[in-house]
Hints:
transmembrane, ion transport, single chain, iron, TonB-dependent receptor, Maltoporin, Chain A, 22-stranded antiparallel beta barrel, 5-stranded mixed β-sheet
Amino acid sequence: xxxxxxxxxxxxxxxxxxxxxxxxxxxxxxxxxxxxxxxxxxxxxxxxxxxxxxxxxxxxxxxxxxxxxxxxxxxxxxxxxxxxxxxxxxxxxxxxxxxxxxxxxxxxxxxxxxxxxxxxxxxxxxxxxxxxxxxxxxxxxxxxxxxxxxxxxxxxxxxxxxxxxxxxxxxxxxxxxxxxxxxxxxxxxxxxxxxxxxxxxxxxxxxxxxxxxxxxxxxxxxxxxxxxxxxxxxxxxxxxxxxxxxxxxxxxxxxxxxxxxxxxxxxxxxxxxxxxxxxxxxxxxxxxxxxxxxxxxxxxxxxxxxxxxxxxxxxxxxxxxxxxxxxxxxxxxxxxxxxxxxxxxxxxxxxxxxxxxxxxxxxxxxxxxxxxxxxxxxxxxxxxxxxxxxxxxxxxxxxxxxxxxxxxxxxxxxxxxxxxxxxxxxxxxxxxxxxxxxxxxxxxxxxxxxxxxxxxxxxxxxxxxxxxxxxxxxxxxxxxxxxxxxxxxxxxxxxxxxxxxxxxxxxxxxxxxxxxxxxxxxxxxxxxxxxxxxxxxxxxxxxxxxxxxxxxxxxxxxxxxxxxxxxxxxxxxxxxxxxxxxxxxxxxxxxxxxxxxxxxxxxxxxxxxxxxxxxxxxxxxxxxxxxxxxxxxxxxxxxxxxxxxxxxxxxxxxxxxxxxxxxxxxxxxxxxxxxxxxxxxxxxxxxxxxxxx
Length: 693
């Protein structure tokens, strides 16, 4: 593993200093038509690039497809990306898997990078496991998913995958749009988007959902605003986004196959979550007299959240928040026939978290009452500083062959301060009985993590219609603040290392007649995997292995019909042994990791004003705990979506979800000796009236 990382580092350094190539990037083919493999992608370079010249696995969903899906939850949309699974919990809550198991736990969300218009929506050390409910995906102009580690433009958290959501620009069609939507269980949604076609656009979304499970209503508002203008010879874009969520949360159903018996039941009617987030950025782009390009993006963001931890004895209330100021600086220029991007990122964050329990633990368990006392469990503040320098270089070697590589060095520093007495104590500083309090507060401290990552990719145009690509890449994530400072009994310091991942992938993409395909094989090794051991300690001596095949295929079937499908077959296994607590055996499969995932769609478009789509989403059987003793059998869910132009600018949309009314679990696990499920919704019909001039 260390040899691989060193080789990548040296290869990336050599590429950045490479001599001029034999041809300019634009000369790969004098007639670009054979290589215009839509879509054009932008996340990995910060500018538009044909997918045929991309050495990474990148999937893009366009605005038309997002509107056709009209998802009520991100899980419905991201099933269309190979190797991706966004599990739906309660309301707008979710967990993420991209070339990985569904990762849970206080810091597991740090394995994924979530971007809006290329800007991280949260600071690297303060991830949100439900991050996608902070982004207006419903009214997006498109989104891209980078599967596997990102390149040097992105640092900590771009480990297993990156999701980049693009807001609509003023010039994008339609200039004006509005809709009203209704569904079962008092579901109502309305959206508006307006633009002058040149300088400004505002998009807003309002959702009121009574909740299909008992006491699980959701109220959510989202807004995006953009203004484009000029400043000092360059283009200045102001970007604002905001989201507000107030939901009643439905917890797990417990008991074997409980999702079949009474899926609407909510055994935690007292649970709730409130969250809000606002982001503001100003992106200034200018083409310099030399022909090179300079981009400077200062940004500000703010988040606050509170939720009842109904899944813990005593049901403590957590409140957390953060404020960040950051600056992204990038220079891009042509050197020796290749293209070089150099960058420096800087960010400062003030974050805080408190956990407070109101009253004694209910029941007659004296141990729980004594070790989980009422009052404050945690109350701390963390100042974080992040700094990165990086370079990414694409160098054509011939008319058909191009090499790309990059290096990034990044440092993240935490300055932690506890606002309650440190140690394994009650809020008033007194010790707990029966061996001590469960919760431990570390002494004030500083932690710094500095990591260097590299990537190296190759693309080869083997014919007019097909290209091959291969890539070596490294990714990492710094320990999250909750993993470092939210300790339990007996652990006074979490001596954690950054999680590190080495990845190799090879693939082919191209045309099949009028259709397109992409086939990718990958292998990844992850070290310093952070988990909680049997004593409740946060440690980082775990390891996992990930290998898989991914297929993405679309093809027309005549003038009116087309088919699209994506599928992945993967094995995610433990690469270490643990005998305490829930045992882990090297070679066993990681829990929450189906070997097979897939989605298929049949689309009928008899005219520009009429479409009908039949879709199916498949989740394979998988283990529910690390010991590989209990399984969920998997499921296939069908959906029917259609839209019809009525008259003039008026459209009618209809969506029938879970067409066969199949009982299923959105998520299943086995913990504390019991099966637990988030049940899936039965057959449900949603109708939308849209105004689209």
